[in-house]
Amino acid sequence: MAIITGASRGLGLELARALADRGWGLVIDARGAGALAEAERDLAGRTTVAALAGDVADPEHRAALVAAARGMGRLDALVNNASLLGPSPQPALADYPPEVLRQVYEVNVHAPLALIRLALDMLGATGGRVVNVTSDAAVEPYPGWGGYGSSKAALEQLTAVLGAEHPELRIYSVDPGDMRTEMHQEAFPGEDISDRPHPAERVPALVELIVGDQASGRHTAGDLLAAAGQAAAAGGAGAADPECIFCRIVAGTLPARVIDGDDRTLAFMDIAPATRGHALVIPRAHARDLREIGGEDLAACAAMAQRVAGRALERLGADGVNLLNSCGAPAWQTVFHFHLHVIPRYADDPLRLPWTPAPGEDEEIAAAAALLADSS
Question: Catalytic residue at 339?
Fold first, then answer.
C-alpha cells in the first residue's frame, strides 16, 4: 500500500497507475478536486484507492492521508511527489517574493517531513520505502531557480539525514529528470517542451526504488534506467538494439508522444495513424517479433493494449477497436521490434478488411488444423 501525493497528473499519476497494475492499494491526493476525481475513476478499476483533495501544507490534510492508510491496514511506501514551483516565470532570488518563498518551502520541505513523521510507525512495521521527488535544480545553480532549487536541496539533505537515522527503512531522493509535464511547462512559459520525455518513461525508475533494494540516498531516474538496461544486456535476452527505432524511444534518445507505460511496456502514438488515436504498444525489452517475445512481456503488452483501447472507446468516442500485430515482412511488419497496433474504429472511417471473407475448402482447413494442433 502506498501514499502518493500530487497524483492527479504527471509523474504522480503515472506512478499510481504502475503500482495499481501491480496490485498495490493507494491513497492519493492533489489540490485540484476535479482532476483528482478523474484520476480516482481511472485507478478504481485497477485497485483499491482513496483519493483526498487537499494541500499537503495543511496539517489536517496530512493527518487525513495517513489515517486513510491506517484504514487500509498497512503502509509500504510514501511518495512525496507534490511540489510547488513558485512564480512563473521564475524570478531571480533578489526579486523573489518572501511570502511565496515561504509557501514553496512549506510544500516542498516541511510537508514531506511532516508526512514522514506521521507515517514512521507504519513504515517501520513493513520495512517501507520513502521516495522524495527532487530535481537537478537541487544540485545545479540555475539562474532563476533559486527558490524551487534551494527547497529541493533542503529536501535532499533531510532525506540523507533521515536515511542515516533510520537504517531499518529505505529513504530516497530521486531526480526524475526533465519531463513533459504541466509544471515543467510552467517553468518554461511559451517554450515548446514536446521533446521532453513523457512521465511514464521515468516511472520504472521509481518502481525500482519502491520494490527493489537500492541503498538509501540520492538517485537519478537516468542512472536507475541505465542500470536496468545494462542488467538486461548482461542477461542476453531483451538487450537493446541500437539500430532499432523503438529501442531508441524506450531509451529516450528518440522522441515519441508517450501515453502510458510500466516497467515492461511503453505505449505511444503512431506517427502515421490509420485513424484518430492510433497507438502502438511495445515491450521495453527488445524482441524482434511474436516468435521472440517472452510470455510475461506478451501478457503485459496485451494488458496495456486493453487499457489504451478502453480509453479510445471512452475518451475519443470510438465505436470499436482493432488490435493488430504483424510478424514478418510478408505480414507487413516494417519495424522489427514486437508491437501491437491499437486502432480506434469509427463507423464512418475508411478502413476495410484486406481480404474478402469466403468459405474455404474443408479438406484444406482440416489439413492445416492437423498441423497446428497441440501434439504434446
Answer: yes
SS3 149: helix
Q: How many CA atoms lie within 13 A of 87 on its CB side?
A: 17
SS3 state of residue 356: coil
What is d(CA 263, CA 100) in angstroms, rounded to the nearest whole number?
Answer: 37
* Locus of grid cell 492437423: 370
Question: Per residue in 243-283, pLDDT tens?
Answer: 788 998 888 778 888 999 988 999 999 988 999 999 999 99
pLDDT at 59 over 50: yes
Residue 80 to residues 45, 105, 113, 227, 350, Cα–Cα distance (Å): 24, 14, 9, 24, 47
**Among the listed residues 211, 188, 250, the one whose alpha carbon sits nearest the alpha carbon of residue 24:** 211
Query: Nearest-5° angle of CA 62, CA 64, CA 65?
Result: 65
Q: Note if the pTM is more than 0.70.
A: no
CA distance 279 to 273: 8
Q: Counting every residue, how long is the chain?
A: 376
Cβ atoms of 305 and 338 within 8 Å: the answer is no
Cα(229)–Cα(304) distance, rounded to whole angstroms?
21
- The residue annotated as part of the active site, out of 110, 278, 337, 339, is 339
Short-list 7, 339, 17, CA closest to 204: 17
pLDDT per residue as tens digits for the range 130-145: 999 999 999 999 999 9
Helix (H, G, I), strand (E, B) or coil at 267: strand
Q: What are phi and psi of 3, to 5 degrees?
A: -100, 130
